[in-house]
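=== Structure Prediction Worksheet ===
Name of assembly: unnamed complex
Input type: mixed (protein and possibly other molecules)
Chain count: two
Listed entries:
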Amino acid sequence: MAETNEGRTTPAQRPLSPHLQIYRPQLTSITSILTRITGNALIVASLMIVWWLFAAATSDAYFAVADAVMTSWFGTLVLTLSLWAVWYHYLAGLRHLVWDSGRGLDLPTAEKMGWGCIIGSVVLTIITLLLV
Amino acid sequence: MRYITPLKNAQNKGAAGSGTEHHWSMIVSSVGLALIVPVFLVAFGRALGGDRAEVLSVFSNPFMAVLTALVIFFGLRHFASGAQTMIEDYSQGGTRQGLIIAVTILSYGLIAVGLFALARIAL
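=== Predicted Assembly ===
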């Protein structure tokens, strides 16, 4: 230890980790944060789908209500965004499996996989929308 | 009296107290979900928008009923484990405990409703 706090009245000036307000966004950090946001946001679509299934199992009148919500412009918007979210989370999850195996941790590979998640999720969302 | 040394007690458990169990369960559930979610997305997308009789006939198909049950159960358990990681990153103490309990209840509650609905439709 070159420096100690011994005999000082003020703490040693050490570098702080970057504060969020001055943190320069990078592809790697943004794609990582998006993994968390998409994964957690999918609870909204999960609630809607389970509710819709429950309504279908219950009665014609209840199903009519759930179906109207799910197929309304708002329901369609939420479900379409959720479709992108699930594909993004899917690809980002595969990226984590690659990382967990100890591969792809260098910056160029990590950034390539980041673009792969962003572009791939949009492409897969469009393909799914064409299939349904 | 316990004949185990404090070091032995702590080894391989880490700060979480349960070692890598939580992380490993996320890996296992993610691989399982990766196999079934794409099929579910297309099947659900095709069923959505149909009238009630059509929806009931789609989900009473044994393959669809089993697939949907697996997606609901493992999807929501995977969600709860992931949400717990987020909660542990951003909150402390009682707030953390309360949020983890809430997320656990939400996930099992939703699983129960989903499986009940599927049972009523398919059986």
